[in-house]
Amino acid sequence: MSLEADIGIRALARFGHFRLDRTTGAVHWSPEVYELYGFDPFEPAPSLAMALAAFPERAQAELRRGIARSWETGEEVSVAASITRRDGGRRDVLARLRADPPDGDGPRTTLSGILLDVSEARTFDERLERERELLRTTLDHMDQGLLVVEPDMSVPVLSRRVTELLRLPEAFIETRPSFPEILNYQYETGTISLETLNSSINAYILDLEDLPEVHVYERETFDGRTLEVRTTKLPDGGFVRTFTDQTARRRRDAEIARAQAEYRRLFENSVVGIYRATPEGRPLRANAALVRMNGYDSEADLLAAVVDPAAEWSVDPARLEEFLRRLRDDGLVTDFVSEVYRHKTRERIWVSETAWAVHDDAGAMVAIEGTVIEATARKHAEDRIAHMARHDALTGLPNRQHFADRVAAALAARSEGAELAVLLFDLDRFKAVNDTLGHPTGDALLRALAARVAGLIGDEGVVARFGGDEFAVLAPGAGTAQAAALAERILEAVRAPVPLEGREVGLGASVGVARAPRDGADPTELIKAADVALYRAKAGGRDGWRFFEPAMAAEVEARQRLELDLRAALERNEFALTYQPVIRTVTGVSVGYEALLRWSHPERGPIAPEEFIGVAEETRLIGPIGAWVLARACADASAWPGDICLWVNVSAVQLARPEFEAELDAALEASGFPARRLFLEITETSLMEHKADLAPLIVRLRARGIRTALDDFGTGYSSLGYLRRFTFDVIKIDRSFVQDLAQFETAAIVMSVLDLARRLGIVTVAEGVETEAQLAALRVAGCSFVQGHFFGPPVDAASIRG
Length: 802
Description:
Number of helices: 31
Mean pLDDT: 84
């Protein structure tokens, strides 16, 4: 049975397929094959050797011999056996494979195959009998006549069609005369001439080895029919001969004609724009969809406008030149996005074009063919994601990176002697609002206050949200007096009650002010100075503001104390890990756990990670702390069931250390925890700070079998750029988007991220799920996995082991 015919019995058995590249040795397996073998769909594709190892030794040998033959002859190989799955279970399978036809005169380079799980179907004997019956039925009904001649000139296979085409007795099907007897019968009945008889005897009986591997010729029959006779030599010395009536060729010609007509109909009626153009890009043909897309009524109108010097063309000349250059260099351009306009309506739209160069026999480009689809909606979605990367999802304000860019631009544009101010403020008692009124109310309060403060700033100023309840303000041209007045106005705006859900909520704020050039000459210095001043304002009783002063060394002193405490914490074993589950959205089952670092200070008690991680990174203590986390987490996870994965956050500074890979290998080796169950989470800020160093590191991690996740997706500077440059297995959608899913704009952005991940084959995890409504929305949207307090608090390692 052919590979194509096997598709018809998918109802009887589970069906998987695979494809082997002979040149690279790479194998592509369908998801059904992963399931059949019991492989983890997250792990790298199994090799051919791994797949064959599941078969018994005899079946392995038979498959290897069959593969070798198929590479040479293209014959189909079929092997039935019982394989051993990864979990120790056994399944009865039928493997069918065949080397694909070569490209031109070269060798066969690819091999395709299928695996049928027939454990629950009938026995192999019944299946083989069905195949024999199918073969007999196929031979009886196929349009071609077929006979097989063994080296001893016996004919084991003689189809009914052969008797019809050669005018042989139907009894020959059962009696199976030898090949010379068939020739003699034809001669005696006058269906072939003596010359044909002699030439057949000489060629196919006496001198078969002198014939080419495939010998094709046509001959006229005595009754005026034309038969195509194709003889293919077999490796054992026999041959297969097929006979095709001329009528079949005419049918094929008719089919070609119908296919051409169908192509013309598709060309005209396709919803995708299709065109053919000169090497210079001037359209020669355009289908109706492309005509409509460009705002014309007919193909003739469009083609006439292209050559009309007075007509404005729907394409930017610079983009057109880039498009043509890429075609000349590569011969193919895919998903080339550009902005055009419809000539009649002047509406600006975005289109995505895929085109290929058409060459003559000498290799010269003689034409361009391609397809065009409107990509306006996609472009808007990409713009929303790009906006998301530079703006806060809750308030729509610029985020930290965008704010730093605006400060840098303002500093560059500042004239000699001019000043500007940077103000940082956060809200006093905001945590109490979240704790008592809930996060939705807290979010509404943040949005309202953000709008108020934005109303205080002129068109040249900038208000940004850094995260949580921390905001920043850029006031170009503001000197000392103006900055002080602005700080007071911010405090007044925050103090004024905000009506929320039938009540009025009022807060205070603490403001830190830095002035350029006295407090810093670049964004980092100014923001840091404002942050120190903010800390001093909060330490001074909150609900006030402070200018930065060089004497504010207390902040540095506190950082130094925290650094000393961190060093001591490592020695006194004050760190611990808890684990938050990663839940499969569809089933609600935990598939892994994320390690969360906890520090219990002997005097200060629990210290939040956000309070000490920054100091650890600045002082490089994150290296030994991170190494401890990896070693401890791998040791804990080694006692978990074999299908549960471990997720560990790694810092940018930690990744940049030369010792990181050695520490990682040591943690895995000491614990015995398999690398394929380990996920390393890398934040967008890590990529932003260490892009050049991380690219080769991620490649090396994947080579170890370790999978990587892009954490806090959407909060960084250029999320889409990271997905293009780095190969991640997982995207983790930041909790800020999940918490705001009820907002249409945020939901649309999340949907766009999920769609983008699906197109790139990347798994998605949504963080911060706290409600049933959020979980339901993410399940409908197709998010793969979720995390959050909705599923309970983090647990210790012993709970998972138990």
